[in-house]
Amino acid sequence: MIKRLSLLLALLLCCAACSPIKPWVKPYERQKIADEIMSFDRDPVAGSYLHHVYDAREAARGGDGASGGGCGCN
Amino acid sequence: MAVINSSSPFPRMREYRFCLFLSFLLFAFSSLTQAAVLPDERIDILYHGYDGGGAQIDGPSVLVRKSIGSSVSVAANYYVDMVSSASIDVEATASPYSEERKENGLSAQYMIDRSTISVGYVSSKENDYDATTYSLGIDQSFFGDLTTLGFGVSFGEDVVGQNTDPNYKRDLQRRKYSINASQILTKNLLASLSFDSASDQCLNLADTESCLNNPYRSVRYLTGTGGYAYQSELYPHTRNSDAVGLRLMYFLPYRASLRAEVRQFSDSWGIESDNAELRYLHPYGERFLFELKYRIYEQTGADFYADLFPFRDAQNYLARDKELSPFSSTVLGLGVTYKVPPGFIPWFEKSTVNLYWDHFNIDYDDFRDARVSPTEFAAGSEPLYSLQADVIRFYLSFWF
């Protein structure tokens, strides 16, 4: 499902690249997305710790928007 | 004898990545641009605790982030893991142990008009494992700040040791390449897409040696007399992995947000995993934020994993790490943030007190509890293992 969504997004972006698009959300319309509750990484220390726990308990890694670091958890 | 290909590439995944990479470039450079912003100046003091499966890990983490002038931000992070472990791996073949891991990190961000360049350094040390990571990244905002595109690379050098053998030393090199794109889709909806390609490589090792495993862990095999015995694990010398994650954040019709995340992962060891998460954040009054989260995760096992091998040296690679076995897990999380009234703590514009609890429930599909009596359970018929863990994060944050 992710691959299909990714391909769809890629297709949309390719189409977008060929046309003169103007920003459709004006700066004065962004009060909601600027709200603190809309932050993907509101508290970076707490967020990176939980990613560390996931990395230690699961085989998967990456794809979560977090930067890498030494784990020492094998 | 099973032969495992340890370096199978992912041509389809790479095609996807390349296609998306080109798409983002086309999109980005056809767009309008606007200046980026530096991260907040803040101090975070965290206490973290993990308790589950016989292991207790806790310690502090402190982050200080400060701007220098209007275009530079620097940050320092100090993190400690204090480990006291009598986990199932330890109880099966070794003795409970205690150890400490300390991690120091430095990073800097330099903002040039529409771009932010980031550099980072992380050093992690424990008595039998040293890790050093260097990272470099660049973010650029486009299209009136609707789009942010980022590229990153990190390079790591680890030295793996073993407490019982002072001559044991394994060198390991890690690389990771990342592409991130964040997009404002509507007035209420944000999206973020991330691709990571990572590679681990052992250096200067003989075929009979490993560096990507825990050197204390063993696999078990049938002895032919109805019982089983243990031998050392043996892993491939390389591991390549790809991961793609999509995150969406939606501002609900009332003041609350809903965050959804899906991720797909695969690696050259034959592991494939998927996870999905839903997170609800609800402000209450002026001072409180409440969070509710639910996450599901499942993975297949590595090609060379087995709970019980049919005989000694049954394959060229051998693993019995439960993190490489097939399993599924759920995480339920609850949290609260309290905003301290302004002026209550001098010098800081804003302060918060935060408490978050996550409960992990992991059910292993092919990892058996070998601690049971061999007279009661025949080899290979022991009960499947499951693990419950609680994770606590208590932290104070100060903005200045």
Structural overview:
The complex is a heterodimer of chains A (74) and B (400). Chain A is mainly alpha-helical and 74 residues long. Helices cover 41% and strands 0% of the residues of chain A. Chain A has helices spanning 2-17, 44-57. Mean pLDDT of chain A is 77; it is low at 67-74. By secondary structure, chain B is mainly beta. Helices cover 6% and strands 59% of the residues of chain B. A 16-stranded antiparallel β-barrel of chain B has the order 1-2-3-4-5-6-7-8-9-12-13-14-15-16-17-18. Chain B has a two-stranded antiparallel sheet with strand order 10-11. In chain B, a hairpin with a 2-residue loop joins strand 5 and strand 6. Classes of the chains: A mainly alpha (74), B mainly beta (400). At the A-B interface, helix 1 and helix 2 of A face helix 1, strand 1, strand 2, strand 4 and strand 5 of B.
Describe how the helices and strands are arranged.
The complex is a heterodimer of chains A (74) and B (400).
Chain A: H1 2-17, H2 44-57
Chain B: H1 11-29, E1 42-52, E2 55-68, E3 72-85, H2 88-93, E4 97-112, E5 115-126, E6 129-142, E7 147-161, E8 169-184, E9 189-203, E10 218-222, E11 228-232, E12 238-251, E13 257-267, E14 272-284, E15 288-299, E16 327-340, E17 350-368, E18 384-399
Antiparallel strand pairs in B: 1-2, 1-18, 2-3, 3-4, 4-5, 5-6, 6-7, 7-8, 8-9, 9-12, 10-11, 12-13, 13-14, 14-15, 15-16, 16-17, 17-18
Summarize the model shown.
The complex is a heterodimer of chains A (74) and B (400). Chain A is an all-alpha fold and 74 residues long.
